[in-house]
Records
---
Amino acid sequence: MPRRVDHDERRRQIAEAVLRIAAGRGLEAVSMREVAAEACVSIGRVQHYFASKDQMLVFAAGRLREHLEQRIRRSLAAAGPPHAPLRSLRAVLVALLPLDRDGREDARAGAAVLIRALGEAELAERYRSGRSDVVATMAEWLRSAADAGELRGDLDPGLEASVLLALVGGLASDLLLGHHTPEQAIAIIDHQLKRLS
């Protein structure tokens, strides 16, 4: 009996190869040939699933988002029930930091894709929509934390969510460059959250 092919899994396998190459050598190194070699498949198989490098990059950007969502779910679960709004917000902020090997790989690949997105509308839209979703969720947690008395009531939740996301973005770069240790980066997040109370 012929073996069933899991096409979604094959696409993910190829996308993961794209991300490993982007994290290690940048997007300039991403080609059909390099991706095929990294994924241990033929060039024909890569071309079967992706007609162009751009298609591979858009799909790989989606995989990056899935990786981030998985880290956020794990961080929220580790924060333990009940999920108080401020505890949930802190868990998400910490999950956005590249604190381990996988997080650093994703952050390097994400930086490479972000640079490419500056000139490509479809990738740029993925980044914009992802950021908008995160800011909206964070603003809601800030609003709930203020309502619960965990934070000052005079805060602008949308503005503070944008500030926190910008802070995490800067800390992520600092972590990748070795300017901060993971412990220092988390302490900076805690300091900023304390300033809001």
---
Amino acid sequence: MRILLVDDHPVVRAGLAAMLAAQDGFTVAGEAADGEEAVRQSAYLAPDLVLMDLQMGEGIDGLEATRQIAALPGAPKVVVLTTYDSDADILRALEAGAVGYLLKESPPEELFAALRTAASGETALSPPVASRLAQRFRSPQLALSQREIEILELLAAGRSNREISKAMFISEATVKTHLAHVYDKLGVDSRTAAVRCAVERRLIRL
């Protein structure tokens, strides 16, 4: 399995490369330090799998890089490897085309197994991530939609209802309706409480 490593920290890339080189069946095809380079290298090297970080300084982030890579002819499979485990990050990565979502705190054996799972065409998730997604399905009435999560993130950024409506191209009345649903699902009655609750439950991150 030929793997492209994408992370803006050279030490992280070096560590991953060393671990993968010590395992049978893995070959590091190349490395990239940012999203743009990841897309270019994916098109040029045609790896089997891309191990993608989410946050990489300037330029496009891992989510946008994943979208662009997934659109390539004969696209490699993308597995996200990150420290972030909020619902918003997980859902966006999977919607962007990632076939796996792993946390950097995962033990090496778990990482290797997940890469093999992803390479076989199955979804690979770290146990904490799988648990979070399962909880959403077990309690659908409490799960926030992607649109509701986006509104919460704008609330956390201090945006007014009018600013949210403009940013999301929806009416202020629709914003208020979404907020009412968010308040009901989270069991809160104010914008401040909604943001605090969402952060505590790791639905969003500040």
